[in-house]
Write a structure and sequence with these properties.
alpha/beta
Length: about 375
């Protein structure tokens, strides 16, 4: 599977790219009252508009019913372009139904543009101004211009900084359960997570780029059969979840259920991800997963995880352990760019450690002769 080239952090850091945009919300307009695309860029086709309307959240579709509720979704359109929903509550619902109006800023971009953001909807979100267009719901514009997005704010998936929120008790194990479904390309509905946004960030940060490119996800939006997303992180009561499992081909994972051990071919990568999350090294994991744009088999991920951790063991290794690690990671033929880079890093570290051990041995021998 080829997830495309992942651009280095330093490349095109000052560049801007463009995306089509649309707004889906509830207004009174000549077309009637209710949820509709009240404005859309000229470059969004009729078929794309229909898909957007089918998937966009309407009244009561946010999991959080408060005035500060937010939601996000990312999925591929039939045209091959990528669609990102940035949803939020936006003032009281004007129809008298109660609650808050759901306002969704829709972005539609070419796949190559999405790749520049490392196939990370949170990176796209970070480039969009949070300024509210107050008059849009009163006087909808006839159209929307292309939106310029700066790559200067782009970070590796899951965040550039390693100063991310650390998982609380049981969160790493539960997030790994979600990650196992993503790696196995199974559909999953996860309900009841107290920090759904963070869970999705952790999972995306540990998902190889080869899979992330085509991954459809949402958090903060209630489950809907119209949205055939692979991963849905939502809230639902027991009656709803039972109906969902019964009527739709989707795996249900209740956050409150015991964090059972994950038993799947990707176990080595899942445990590696958990260790990185617990130690606050989200950025390291995200940068590594962004390099995995082709082979993401269980065997390859196990190799990458083992090599990454063994590199950190080299500086303190004694001669016996160094020989063992070197046997474990022969140069051979690297299977991908990430594998090649890590093997080169391991080889240089091992050579430096071997020289240091040899020097220490010579110094010790010299001390013995002096005595």
């Amino acid at each position: 599977m080829d997830g495309g080239t992942v651009v280095d952090v330093g490349e095109a850091c000052a560049a801007t790219v463009q995306a089509e945009q649309a707004i889906f919300t509830s207004v009174r307009s000549p077309m009637g009252t209710g949820y509709q695309l009240i404005a859309a860029g000229r470059g969004i086709s009729a078929d794309e508009r229909r898909e957007i309307v089918q998937c966009a959240p309407s009244h009561g579709s946010l999991c959080d019913s408060s005035s500060t509720a937010t939601g996000l979704a990312s999925f591929a359109l039939g045209s091959g372009r990528r669609c990102v929903f940035l949803s939020r509550s936006a003032g009281p619902e004007h129809t008298g139904r109660g609650g808050y109006r759901v306002y969704t800023h829709v972005l539609v971009m070419e796949l190559e543009v999405f790749r520049l953001f490392r196939c990370d909807p949170f990176n796209v979100e970070a480039t969009v101004s949070t300024e509210t267009i107050e008059d849009v719901t009163r006087t909808p514009p006839s159209g929307l211009e292309l939106l310029s997005l700066s790559l200067a704010t782009r970070t590796p998936v899951g965040g550039e900084s390693d100063n991310e929120l650390l998982p609380e008790d049981g969160e790493a194990e539960r997030a790994a359960r979600v990650l196992s479904a993503v790696l196995g390309e199974r559909r999953m509905l996860m309900v009841g997570a107290p920090r759904p946004r963070e869970v999705l960030r952790w999972v995306l940060g540990a998902t190889p780029a080869a899979l992330r490119r085509d991954l459809s996800v949402s958090y903060g939006l209630k489950f809907s059969p119209a949205r055939r997303f692979q991963l849905v992180i939502a809230g639902a009561n027991s009656a709803e979840t039972e109906r969902i499992v019964r009527d739709h081909e989707i795996e249900l994972f209740d956050w409150e259920s015991p964090a059972a051990p994950v038993d799947c071919p990707f176990e080595a990568w899942l445990r590696f991800a958990q260790r990185r999350w617990r130690s606050g090294r989200h950025g390291d994991l995200a940068r590594l997963s962004s390099e995995l744009s082709r082979d993401c088999s269980a065997a390859m991920l196990e190799q990458i995880a083992s090599l990454s951790e063994d590199i950190e063991r080299v500086p303190d290794a004694d001669a016996s352990l160094l020989r063992e690690l070197s046997r474990r990671h022969p140069w051979g033929m690297p299977e991908c760019d990430a594998h090649r880079r890590l093997l080169d890093r391991f080889r240089k570290a091992a050579e430096a450690r071997k020289e240091a051990l040899a020097q220490a041995e010579q110094e010790a021998a010299g001390d013995e002769e002096a005595d």
